[in-house]
Amino acid sequence: MAPWVAIVAGVIGSALGVPLVRIAERMLRIRRRFAWPVRAAGVVATGALVALVVWKFGPGWELPAYLYLALTSVVLSVVDLAEKRLPNALVYPSLLVLPVLLVFAAAATGSWSALLGALAGGAALFVFYFVLALISPSGIGMGDVKLAAVIGLALGYLGWTPVLVGSFGGFLIGSLVSLVALAGRRVTLRGSLPFGPSMLAGAFLGVLLA
């Protein structure tokens, strides 16, 4: 994939970031407009994720599935950062839309083993996070558990190495964010930060290294 194609895709993705942030605003329990730094961050994040996905998959059949993941990740992250909540209105449809897109990709390329890997990855991360939620409900919420299934589907299609990289990458990013927040006194030792954005950042690290 020529770099300029990814750059153009990133510019287009940035434009999509504007309506995505508006969608996130509508999913808030208490409707409000985000401040301009949040809107700007959403625009930049959308552009970066779209550029990454286009650069990684090019015109391949997998592209729609991972573009979908990129766009939904922005909305989920913005809402989670604002309300510490991953909206079911987006997570539940993703559990249907993403597998359907992966089925199309597998059918077009004959990669049925990759599709089985997606199902296995989704199930594995769901169970893993569900156990973590039972052990530490204050640290891992059920929204994180459902999101883990979505991430597992996307990474499992690419193989078990991306699943492992994405999973542990999410925990590493989450730990670093927590340390920075503690150092800046943005959160106390008893406080908690939304984990969804870190999970999604780790997921795209797994995609990048796949």
From TrEMBL:
Give GO cellular component annotations, separated by semicolons.
plasma membrane
Q: Which domain of life is it from?
A: Bacteria
Q: Which InterPro entries match?
A: Prepilin_IV_endopep_pep, Prepilin_peptidase/N-MTase
Query: Which UniProt keywords are present, listed alphabetically?
Result: Membrane, Transmembrane, Transmembrane helix
Pfam families hit by this protein:
Peptidase_A24 (PF01478)
Cite a single GO MF annotation: aspartic-type endopeptidase activity
In this chain the Prepilin type IV endopeptidase peptidase domain maps to 68-178
Where do the TM regions start and end?
6-24, 36-57, 63-82, 89-108, 114-135, 147-173, 193-209
GO BP term, pick one: signal peptide processing
Q: Into which family does the record put it?
A: Belongs to the peptidase A24 family.
UniProt-recorded name of the protein = Prepilin peptidase
Species name: Cryobacterium fucosi
